[in-house]
Each structure stands twice: as structure tokens, then as C-alpha cells.
Specification:
The chain is α+β, with helices and mostly antiparallel strands. Among the domains are: about 1-185, 2-Layer Sandwich (Nucleotidyltransferase, domain 5); about 210-305 and about 335-370, no CATH class; about 405-485, no CATH class. The chain is built from 26 helices and 20 strands. The strands form five sheets. It has a six-stranded antiparallel sheet, covered by helices on one side. The chain is globular.
Length: about 650
């Protein structure tokens, strides 16, 4: 199979990072500046499209030839830009993404990071960021460049030559990374899944521009109203200024040494010396709630056909390969609890913000509730939404062979009630509304959500968001849950022992249901039933002073700090990785099956699939039946899905 490696440098006045590549290429001034390529181990060629050079006919032909595999680092960008510029179809089945390949091994998501971690001889040119900023994004007019809003090659020929070499070097580095990764191939089924992922991202999901633009305008008007009232009371030039507001509060006798953040507000409100001070604090609190980030993201990323594309990152959570959200971040949408969502969204769309507030409450709350409803079906379609029921609780019970839990899921499925009955030794039929034992359901639910991955009191506190349980009960609840689920508890220690043994003895240790820990080339692999493997780079054994025993340390990206660093893991965390990875594989299986059945997925959120279905075709029953079908690599895993239809996206 011929391999054609590609890297392009482009220009567009649209912000790529904030708007996404699909919106980026729609700009009238979008163009490909440089096109670097190489066949196999041949020298890298760079075509300067700004200098009237043309892509060789062979290369142009091979861009659509299924016999030629095209590779790039972050291939979605190359695919989309090349398809637009040359007006051709770039079928994802003919492409492979080296970035995704790196992510499957737990490596960083950016080219220079991977090259650095792999200690390649070829490294990404460090001048790149400055060159991209100079040639590939608009520039501000200055005294030096006059009114120029863009830099062309003739403005700095030396820098342009450096940009050509930078473009060439990216192909060299991408090729070296791919060669290094060849020892650990991605299963072909995962590449088929990536192809489907690209189709879903290319298809995109339709947005309601009237709604999201009204939401932005409503927020602007409401924020202006709050600021005006705060100005009137305080007579400050800018009541949003922390320094000015703290000084004003100090004059009123209210010191704020710890600031004015959300967690300090209740105490400050209690200490307010008078009604005016209290009202200003309330205004400050309300201003902090006004956030239309997701609506603004919709406005930035929506394409000319009113669709948002590129919202999902394959293998974005690279510890488990689960998808991550991009641009609008659909993976963390607020839930909706307004009863009449249809009325609320229509009032918002009408622009009658006063009526909206009168009927449904303060705009920050209402706008948050309506975010999901901005996603709408294509013309002539409706959404069918289906999601797995308690997927992680099912998978962990299956892995651990916790028979009573599996029996619940194979029967009535009321895991929270059954767990509470098992924990507290009461008949399950008494855990119903109207019976005193119904209060135990909340304890059962919190315990199921918090304790499955060796979670203790802190995990319970985090899951008990409604504060339905006395914190003094947490230690007892943890013990009761663990006593009720002895096999899950055993699984934590079995997973940790297996992983430690695999690393220490440089061998393979079986766990359960086809899961095994395997040590190879400095990497601890967790082989999964589906045929793929999780990777823990540079795994080693180090004493854990907190628990006076040896434990596993590995290197990986810190998702918060965005840097490559060491991490310590343990049994519960290893089991969490396994369960979430297997749950992800169940979703992947369903996405492929739904696609084969003709369902067009427009996005998926955690364990939920949202499909555009023509009115009169398909059904909730068929979608949920497909998602509930047994999976050959997971015999005995009881899957179940629920669903509903809707005219706009919502939480059922």
C-alpha cells in the first residue's frame, strides 16, 4: 500500500482555534499556502501555491485514489482544507491520523509534544508559532506595515523561506512518529470507527441561530441592567472592577480579604451591614452567573448552512479513548429542568425577554436551561435520542462477576433501590414513594455512583450534590456498600496486583473477561475484551508512602495542567479506566450498528446517541433495540437502552 504523507500551511481570517476548521475554510479568503508531501521514505517536497506552483498531477490523482493511504498529524485538518481548496472529496477511509495513533498510546495531542516524549532525532521546528502568526493569521495594522492586515511572502522573503522549511519539517517529524508507532498498530476496527467519527463530524448538527442569537442579546441586556443598577447604588465608574468594588464595600464596613468569589458570597451576604450593601453583593453574585459561553461558541462555529461541525474529538480522553468535546463542548451541557421547554424557547426566540423573565425566572437560569434546545434536527427530520442505562454500573458488575447486581440488570433494572435494599437489609418493595424506606433510595443511588471505583467519604460527598445524606453517615455507607458488593471490592485489589505483577515481572497477567495486563517496551498495556489496549507509558513500580506499599507510576498528560508528567495509580483507578473504556467500546459498537442500519448520528454525548431521522422513518424502539443487542466480545454483559423523540435536543 502506497503511503502519502501530507502537511499543509493555510490562511484564513477566521480564528481556527475558536471557530473550528469547517468554519475556517468557509471564509472567502481561505487558501492553502504551502503543500508538503512525501511518498514513503522519499525526500519531502514542498509546493508553494502562492508562487503559481501547482500540485503534481500524480499527487492530485492520489488524493482521491483508494489505493493510496494519506497520512497527516491531525488528519481532520488536512482532509477538510484539501477537500475545500481542490474541490474534491477526501474520503476518511483513505486517510490515517497520526495524532489519533499517538493518543491511543496515551501520548500528548500535539506534534512537538509527541516528538519530545518519543525522543525523536527529528523535532518540530520551534520557529513555527511565530511563522504561523506572521503568514497564516491576519495581522494588526502598525506603523511598520501601514494599513496592511495580512503578511504575504514578498513582505519578508527570508521568513517565507523559513516557513517553507518549517512545512517540510512537519512531514519529516510526522513520518518519524508514525515509524516509531508502527510497533503498536491501531486495530483496523478502530480505524473504521475513526472513519465513522469523521463522517459524523463532517455531517455536523443543525443549530437554531434565532435562538442562540436571542440568548446572546438577552444576556447583553440583562447584564447591562445589572451594571446600571450597581452603578446607581455605588456611584462607581465600573462596579465590575474587583478593586473598585472591594474599596466601596470597605467604606461600608465590610472587609473582603478573601475576595468576592462564589464560595465567599453566603458569608458576605450574612455580614452585609445594610440593604444597599446586600443588594450590591446580590448584583455581583448575579453578574457572576451570566454566562453565554456556549451560545457564543455556537455563533462562532456555525457554518453557512446553520450546522456546527467538528464537535467531537476521537480518543480525546486518551486514558480510555472516550470522545472529548470541542468548540461547543457538548460533553458538559447543563441539564434542563424547566417543565415547558417549548414555550420557554419560543418566548426567547420572539425576543420578549421581559416575558421570559416573568414566566421562567432570572435569565442566567433560563438561558442555561435552554442551551440544549439550540440543537435542532435537519429539515424534515426529528431527533431520536437513545442512551445506555447505568452502563458503568453494569460493566463493573460484569467485570467483577457481582452476580446479584447482574441479576438486577437482567430483571427489573432498579439498581438504586436494589442496592439500598442490600445495604440496609430491607425488602426492596418497601423502597417506594410514600414508604419511610424510600429515603434509602438516595443513599443507594449516591453509593452506586460514588463507590464503584474504590471511592470513599470524599467521593460520596461529591456525588451527594443535593445534600440528601448526613455527612456523618458517609463512613458507614462506604462500608455497607463494600460489604454488599464483595466481588467489586476484590476486583480493585486484583487489578492492582495484576498490573504490579505485569510491570515487576515484565510479563502478562490475566484479570477477567479477556482483560489482561501486559508489559512491553516500558509500557503497561491493559488489553480489553474488544481487542484494543489502554497504555500506561513508562510504567514503573515505586513505593507509595501514603499506604506503605509498592504502587504503579506512569507518565502521561495532565488534563488540567496540560503538561506531560508522572501519575500514580491504584486499583480503583485502574478499574475505573477499564470500565469507562469498555463502556466506550459498547458505545462504539452501537454507533457502527446504528450507521449500518441507516441512522445518521449527528452527535453523541457520553453514553447517549442523537440521530437525525426523517419523519416517518426509524423509531425509538429500533434504536434502543440495536443498542441493547448483545456484543460478541462481552458475553453475559446485560445492556439496555432507553430513548425518546424530540423536535429539539433536551434531557428526557
Amino acid at each position: 500500500m502506497t503511503v502519502l504523507q501530507i502537511d499543509v500551511e493555510t490562511y484564513s481570517s477566521v480564528d481556527l482555534k475558536n471557530c473550528g476548521v469547517h468554519r475556517y475554510v468557509e471564509s472567502p479568503d481561505f487558501e492553502i499556502l504551502l503543500f508538503a508531501y512525501a511518498y514513503g521514505d522519499d525526500p519531502v517536497q514542498v509546493v508553494d501555491l502562492t508562487d503559481f506552483e501547482e500540485l503534481p498531477e500524480q499527487v492530485l490523482h492520489d488524493l482521491t485514489d483508494p489505493a493510496v493511504i494519506k497520512t497527516a498529524y491531525n488528519a481532520a485538518f488536512e482532509r477538510t482544507t484539501i477537500a475545500k481548496y481542490f474541490d474534491i472529496e477526501c474520503d476518511p477511509s483513505q486517510w490515517r491520523c497520526t495524532s489519533v495513533w499517538a493518543l491511543t498510546l496515551g501520548l500528548p495531542g500535539y506534534l512537538e509534544g509527541v516528538a519530545d516524549v518519543l525522543k525523536l532525532e527529528a523535532q518540530k521546528d520551534s520557529k513555527g508559532k511565530a511563522l504561523i502568526k506572521y503568514f497564516s493569521v491576519p495581522c494588526k495594522p502598525t506603523k511598520v506595515n501601514g494599513q496592511r492586515t495580512r503578511n504575504f511572502p514578498h513582505h519578508d522573503p527570508q521568513k517565507w523561506q523559513e516557513y517553507i522549511e518549517y512545512n517540510r519539517q512537519d512531514v519529516v517529524v510526522e513520518r518519524e512518529i508514525r515509524k516509531k508507532l508502527e510497533r503498536f498498530p491501531v486495530p483496523e476496527k478502530e480505524w473504521r470507527l475513526w472513519e465513522l467519527d469523521q463522517q459524523i463530524n463532517d455531517r455536523g448538527v443543525r443549530l437554531d441561530p434565532v435562538l442562540f442569537q436571542a440568548a446572546i442579546e438577552c444576556d447583553v441586556q440583562y447584564s447591562a441592567r445589572l451594571v446600571a443598577e450597581a452603578k446607581e447604588i455605588t456611584e462607581l465608574e465600573n462596579p465590575n472592577s474587583l478593586a473598585q468594588l472591594k474599596a466601596w464595600l470597605s467604606e461600608r464596613g465590610l472587609e473582603t480579604p478573601d475576595g468576592l468569589s462564589k464560595e465567599h458570597m453566603p458569608a458576605l451576604l450574612d455580614a452585609a451591614p445594610d440593604e444597599e450593601t446586600r443588594r450590591v453583593l446580590e448584583l455581583r453574585q448575579e453578574m457572576g452567573k451570566t454566562s453565554v459561553d456556549k451560545y457564543n461558541a455556537m455563533n462562532r462555529s456555525v457554518c453557512v448552512d446553520e450546522r456546527a461541525r467538528g464537535l467531537l474529538q476521537f480518543c480525546g480522553a486518551n486514558r480510555t479513548w472516550r470522545w472529548a468535546g470541542r468548540l461547543i463542548q457538548v460533553q458538559n451541557l447543563p441539564q434542563n429542568k424547566i417543565e415547558d421547554l417549548a414555550l420557554a424557547r419560543e418566548v426567547l426566540r420572539s425576543g420578549d425577554y421581559e416575558l421570559l423573565e416573568m414566566l421562567f425566572g432570572a435569565p442566567p437560569f433560563v438561558l442555561s436551561q435552554l442551551i440544549r434546545t439550540a440543537f435542532i434536527p435537519s429539515e424534515g427530520c426529528r431527533f431520536i435520542v437513545a442512551d445506555f442505562s447505568a452502563i458503568e454500573a453494569r460493566v463493573v458488575a460484569w467485570l467483577a462477576n457481582e452476580k446479584w447486581v447482574l441479576d438486577v440488570f437482567r430483571g427489573h433494572g432498579k439498581i438504586y433501590e436494589a442496592t439500598a435494599a442490600n445495604m440496609f437489609g430491607v425488602p426492596m418493595e418497601t423502597i417506594v414513594k410514600g414508604h419511610p424506606n424510600y429515603e434509602l433510595r438516595a443513599r443507594g443511588k449516591v453509593a452506586v455512583l460514588a463507590c464503584g471505583y474504590q471511592g470513599g467519604e470524599n467521593a460520596l460527598a461529591a456525588m451527594d450534590s443535593k445534600k440528601e445524606i448526613n455527612p456523618d453517615e458517609y463512613p458507614r455507607l462506604v462500608k455497607q456498600w463494600r460489604d454488599a458488593n464483595p466481588n467489586i471490592r476484590k476486583l480493585w485489589y486484583a487489578a492492582e496486583n495484576a498490573a504490579v505483577s505485569a510491570v515487576r515481572e515484565k510479563t502478562t497477567v490475566k484479570l477477567a473477561h479477556g482483560v489482561r495486563y501486559r508489559y512491553e517496551a516500558g509500557i503497561l498495556f491493559a488489553d480489553l475484551p474488544s481487542g484494543r489496549s489502554l497504555a500506561y507509558m513508562n510504567a514503573r513500580i515505586k513505593p507509595d508512602p501514603k499506604f506503605s506499599k509498592d504502587g504503579i507510576v506512569f507518565d502521561g498528560m495532565d488534563q488540567v495542567k496540560k503538561k506531560w508528567m508522572s501519575h500514580r495509580t491504584y486499583g480503583g483507578r485502574l478499574v475505573e479506566n477499564l470500565v469507562q473504556a469498555i463502556a466506550r467500546d459498547c458505545l462504539a459498537e452501537s454507533l457502527l450498528r446504528l450507521d449500518a442500519a441507516g441512522y445518521k448520528t449527528v452527535m453523541h454525548v457520553h453514553d447517549e446517541v442523537i440521530a437525525d431521522a426523517p419523519i416517518g422513518w426509524g423509531s425509538v424502539e429500533e434504536m434502543t433495540e440495536i443498542m441493547s443487542q448483545p456484543i460478541d466480545w462481552a458475553p453475559g454483559l446485560p445492556l439496555s437502552a432507553d430513548g425518546f423523540e424530540c423536535e429539539f435536543y433536551q434531557k428526557d
